[in-house]
Amino acid sequence: MDVNKSERAVTLKDIAEASGVSISTVSRILDDRYPPSQTENAVRVRRIAEQLGYRRNVYASGLRRRESGLIGVLVPRLTDAVMSLMFEAIERAARSRGMFAIVSTCGDDADSQAEVVESLLDRNVDGIILATARVDDAIPERLRQRRLPHVLVLRSDNASPTVTGDDVLGGYLAARHLIDLGHTNIAVVTGPTFTSSAHGRVNGARRALTEASLDLPNDNIIFTGYGIEAGEDAAKELLNRENRPTAIFAANDNLAIGVAHYAAQLDIKLGPDLSIVGYNDIPLVEKLSVPLTSVRVPFDHIAEKAVDMLREENPHSATTSFIPTLIPRKSTARPRGKS
């Protein structure tokens, strides 16, 4: 058979005839669920398939295995840089494993989340990755009851399979950095009370302060949203006090940007007058006029583990945590008056 690209769709039979092997042999060699064989025969079959212009029919092969090759990803919103970074990492991890990730947004409304999950399931996704798990979210429990494959990322409900950064350690590293610079009056601005990440980062900061024999008064902890405006509002409360903090750990980079923006309105200089640590280390923060110290979260490692866990036949329910890293920049410095 002449090995030329045809105008019609190339089939396994075409490749088998060109290669002189059986259709089942071609199917096995081209099945990307397994590591590619490097035998002479396998290399020749893959080369002929490429020359013929063969494209694997993911949908048809999925039907045969009762798989679609699709992963559903649920995020609150894609305008949040962290959610965008997380989805992009999941999409890369899925694609490298011969799968395809589709994303849906649902905001923070429980009914909307449930509706979007059902919509993804109606599209025959093989499983769902949830970046929306609230501590009071009923969706993971429903998925567990229906034995539907799912993995939580960045947040935990202490029951479903979960992959996250170590929020407690991240909060500890942020506060420890500020303590080591000589700060004693430290405040924490964190996310909504319904998120495990908000509580974990506060708990880590509190642990670091306790170890240093420092207090973290309740009025120095502000639970709010994860947006820039929420950071501005928190800064208004903290920076207009007579005994304002000399350092703020903002448990999200957007919060940190909001705090920094309001501080600039008061002519408070980042570093010397007010140290700020953010969280997640989104690409923007190192480009700011005063580059932001931030706790870096390994999104790619989290995504790869989540996709692999989703593909397991019986995924365990334990939480896998990856170690975050503190990235110091100019937004943190020793407080004035301390050498």
TrEMBL record:
Instruction: Enumerate the GO terms in the molecular function aspect.
Output: DNA-binding transcription factor activity; transcription cis-regulatory region binding
A family per Pfam: Peripla_BP_3
Cite the residue spans of the region called Disordered. Answer: 316-339
- Domain HTH lacI-type intervals: 10-65
Q: Alphabetically list the UniProt keywords.
A: DNA-binding, Repressor, Transcription, Transcription regulation
Q: Which InterPro entries match?
A: HTH_LacI, LacI/GalR-like_sensor, Lambda_DNA-bd_dom_sf, Peripla_BP_I
Q: Give the protein name, as stated in the record.
A: LacI family transcriptional regulator
Q: Which organism is it from?
A: Corynebacterium deserti GIMN1.010
